[in-house]
Amino acid sequence: MKKKVLALLSALTIMATGSMTAFAASPTVPGTEAPAQGQVVATTVTQMKTATEYTSVTQVSDGFSVTTVTQTVVQQVAVTVQNTLLNNLSHIGTTFASAATSGSAQIAASSYSNIAAAAEDSTKRVTASVLSVVDVNAETATKASNGNYVVTMNISSILSTDAIAVLHYNGSAWETIIPTNVSNGSVTFETASLSPISIVKLEVESLTMAPKTGEAMAMMAVVMLAGLAGVIFCGKKYFG
């Protein structure tokens, strides 16, 4: 009887282990990788929207249309942003800034240079805001003479000074595209194929924060009390 119970437990353990292995090795959502050597800046991906919400805030230029991706694609983007953009900020920032200074892209070179400089600064944090994840479809649009579609995506929160990156799923992997133009409310880029497209904004902020309002008020109260005590002490000494 004991042998049968042990055999049953052993079989259940093997089945459970096999299930866990299959779950961890998901082929759809990649795992988070380590940052590039020498990168010490803190990084974060802001809270993601749902696939439907992304469609509602995204418009596209004439000849194209947008449709809603699956929630799995949104999850893919979150990890891809970390691995492809945030984990190698020096390369991303330098490459994009170079495109701006060479005149091949009308984007804010200084914004991307700031991203590159932050990579080795532990007092900074770089935040990636995923502004859109949608399927872009060609309705009446045709490719330009260089074989690429020229797409303009309209998202009201974009500013011309923003450091914007475009991610495109080419059927086998996510690739990074440098925009050809970033303007208030829109980003333009070229791509050989369409499929899922994501628009990402990168921002640098300092981790050295000013005291919160409550903390500042408390500190002010302490200073005032200390000053009042000094006045009382001096008064007693003078008039006493």
Keywords for this structure?
single chain; 240 residues; alpha+beta; 2 domains; 6-stranded mixed sheet; 4-stranded antiparallel sheet; 39% helix; 26% strand; globular; disordered N terminus; disordered C terminus
Would you write up a description of this structure?
It is a single chain. The chain has 240 residues and is α+β, with helices and mostly antiparallel strands. The chain folds into two domains: 30-206, no CATH class; 212-240. Helix content is 39%, strand content 26%. It has six helices and ten strands; from the N terminus they run H-E-H-E-E-H-H-H-E-E-E-E-E-E-E-H. The chain has helices at residues 2-24, 51-56, 71-85, 89-101, 109-118, 213-239, and strands spanning 42-45, 59-60, 64-67, 124-138, 149-154, 163-169, 174-177, 181-183, 186-191, 195-206. The strands form two sheets. Strands 1, 3, 4, 6, 7 and 10 form a six-stranded mixed sheet that branches. The chain has a four-stranded antiparallel sheet with strand order 2-5-9-8, with no helix packed on it. Helix 4 packs antiparallel against helix 5 (109-118). It starts with a helix and ends with a helix. 26% of the residues are buried.
